[in-house]
Predict the 3D structure of the following.
Amino acid sequence: MNRCICIITCFLVFCLLVPFPVHAAKKKPGVFSEQTSASIRPPAVLNEMKHWSNPDYTRISLELDRDVTWEAHELGKGGNGKPGRVYIDLKRTRLGKSVTDITIGDGLLKGARVGQYKADVVRVVLDTENFREYKIFPLSDPARLVIDVRGERPTEISRLEPVVTAAPERVMMPKQEDKPHVVEKKLKPPPKSALSKIRRIVVDPGHGGHDPGAVGPTGIQEKDVVLAIGLKLRELLTEELGVDVVMTRSTDIFIPLEERTAIANKVGADLFLSVHANAAVNRSAAGIETYYLNLAKTDKVAQLAAKENGTSLEKVSVLQAILFDLMANYKLNDSAHLANEVQKSLHKKIRTIHNDVKNLGVKQGPFYVLVGASMPSILVETAFLSNATEESRLKDPAYQEMVANGILEGVHSYISSLK
Ligand SMILES: [Zn+2]
């Protein structure tokens, strides 16, 4: 695991190869590199390029068969009829057969082009219309680079429906006989004025498909437990609060992290709830904690973020460095408020049955699934799957129901407190 982050300094050499005026090129060498045996291994392959348009940013995802080193450059920002470009060179990479240029035309980007720039360099060119800044995040499994381009769109374009290449699943109302039998006494409905501010909630059960998430001592998988909780939560939110609920997944499928917030932005969600189960090397660790997006304050949080992001600690530190610049864009106070309400209600609810349950409180961490969410968003760690006692609770449908109820009550308190 002795990878390290390095900054490539061969700027001058590189610029000689660039078919644009050198003085105009602003380089951003956000580089994550694999140092060992890179020269022996065959080149990486760029397999896919996807995009999502959101109200204040456009996200491009480049999917590769393994980690690569890259260099990014910027030539003007577009706007006022002037062309602007961001181009990213992927080192030791070949272009996959099915990858083609894409047309975007969303007011920030005109489109994205790809080409085998040199024998071992793939160049991705983003033709910009008007943008302020861009950030590149490396993610794992599959290896990918996510590029978020931010800026103000011209007003006539920002009113258009945002475009998402992957359509989210729509909510199906549960059939009468599927309704939970344990629905407890009805919550007092929040004031209408508050409810009108929260009309749509995205419920995001973590992991799925080939990504099991945490695995408990007897083999219970996080992806199954959090899906069960998420589906119950959907029913409760729909029935008790009358809000529209969109699931990022309602079956055992894999959805990349960068797509989950893109779904929430696309459907214009007012809240984003990501549901997870915790894991720790120390098997006695137990309890409930709720996170919102911010820099990690402790190594423990950085380790959890690495686990939930499906990446290495090293990539978490790259993310931290980028997040530091981005924090101004997030609804930190609202997310912290939502996290507090959910943590409080969930702990209170679980304590009615298991009075030993630990309240680990509200914390902040660099969870990629929350990056780019334009609404208050939290990640709930419902219990520790790595703890034998909590694993047996998590697999119990009655406990799952209780967790869903606790989260529901927290969301209800949050909505009720809105003026
Ligand atoms: Zn998780």
Observations:
- The two ends are 50 Å apart (CA to CA).
- The pocket of zinc ion is lined by residues 206-207, 213, 222, 276, 308 (CB under 6 Å).
